[in-house]
Amino acid sequence: MTRGDASRPAATDGETPLVARVFAKLADGSFHSGEDLAKILGVTRSAIWKAARSLRDLGVNLHAVRNRGYRLVAASEPLEATRIRERISRAVRDRIRTVEVAWSVSSTNTVLLERGNPPNGSCDVILAEYQTAGRGRRGRAWLAPPGGSICLSLSWTFREVPRDLGALGLVIGVCALRALRELGVTQAKLKWPNDLLVEDRKLGGILIELRAESAGPACVVIGIGLNVALGVPLLQKIAETGVTATDLITAGLVQPSRNAIVAALVNSCVRGLSDFESNGLRLFSEEWREADALRGRPVDVKASDGVARGLARGIDVNGALIVETPQGLKRFISGDVTVRAG
Question: What does 314-333 look like in DSSP terms, one character per residue?
């Protein structure tokens, strides 16, 4: 296979789980009877009923109406590797070794971490409709139902460890922001170190994991989770965990195409990674500062040595968070930040 056109072989119907095949048939948001679905998919009506129950268990908002059948409450475009590649620019496509879409994996980051590094200056991309062990920073669970979000990971190999590698999460945040703006979402902000926000509600998150040798190339696996259409019940469930979330539909994106969103993210991230390898954080710092959701606000920063209180004063040249405390300016390279009321 030529570089840029590679993809994992598409699964046949026999290999694809029935629940995934039922989801694909329901993706248009119209009613489909259990009898019709059974005939089309070559299974029993009981099997369709069990698949529908499994979709509900995974968090899919599904209606079942007697004499009409099943429908998704909101139509959801299935992720397809071919459609994603078609929307990626030719220059970026030439730097992508594989694009893969899976129905379910433990974690997209974990899958790529278990594989070999892509060649220098190129990447592998994987997406999943559902993660059984999706996670954010510090091992937190990431809730994402099939069709309602984007669970994307890409691996990238640097020729050698970049000087500003610790700030890569900020760079990817800027790349994601650029992609969202191209799609018409202009009100998104960035919260140090790895969150995408709209009106102080979490729209998405970034997880960077490194695999490097003592001397030689460094491979990073970049995970991006983005809420597209979660629905009110799941947004309420997430709120019960202490996180106030939102999604792209709530942010005003009408009929979002998940394949187009993924392509925009991949385009922006691959370009950004190339620039970052050559120039470090400095090409992204000003954009990050303009989108800083914390600057000037009272915050608590929970770090390894305790909790610091003060006013967020932006980032320094290396991407560390600066907080003005009663004891003076403090610099943080990691930590959890919460905004205090008032």
Answer: EE-TTS-EEEEETTEEEEES
Q: State yes or no: cis peptide before 193, omega within 30 of 0.
A: yes
pTM over 0.85: yes
DSSP class of residue 166 equals G
Displacement of CA 138 from its chain's centroid (Å) = 16
The angle formed by the CA atoms of residues 284, 223 and 249, to the nearest 5 degrees, is 85
- Residues 37-46 as b/e (b if ≥16 CB within 10 A, e otherwise) read bbeebebeee
Residue 218's pLDDT is 86
Give me the DSSP letters along 266-307: HHHHHHHHHHHHHHGGGGTHHHHHHTBSSTTSEEEEEETTEE
Per the CB < 8 A criterion, the answer to whether 124 and 98 are in contact is yes
Q: What is the pLDDT of residue 241?
A: 82
Crossing angle of helices 34-41 and 45-57, rounded to 10°: 100
Side chain identity, residue 296: G
Strand order in the sheet with 201-212: 96-105, 123-131, 149-158, 218-227, 201-212, 195-198, 189-191
Kindly state the helix (H) or strand (E) to which residue 237 belongs, with its residue range. helix 232-239
Give 287's contacts (C-beta < 8 A, 6+ positions apart).
174, 177, 178
Active-site amino acid positions: 137, 202, 340
Domains in the chain, CATH or no CATH each = 18-72 (1.10.10.10), 81-288 (3.30.930.10), 294-339 (2.30.30.100)
Task: Work out the angle between the directed axes of helices 45-57 and 18-26 (0-180°, nearest 10).
Answer: 80
**Residues 181 and 326: beta-carbon distance below 8 Å:** no
Describe the crossing of helices 258-279 and 168-182 by its angle, rounded to 10 degrees: 140
Task: For residue 129, give Cα distances in angstroms to 134, 195, 240, 309, 332.
Answer: 11, 21, 23, 39, 35
Let me know: does 162 contact 284? Beta carbons within 8 Å. no
Q: Is the model's pLDDT at 171 over the cut of 70?
A: yes
Burial class from Cβ neighbours inside 10 Å (0-12, 13-18, 19+) for residue 145 reads buried
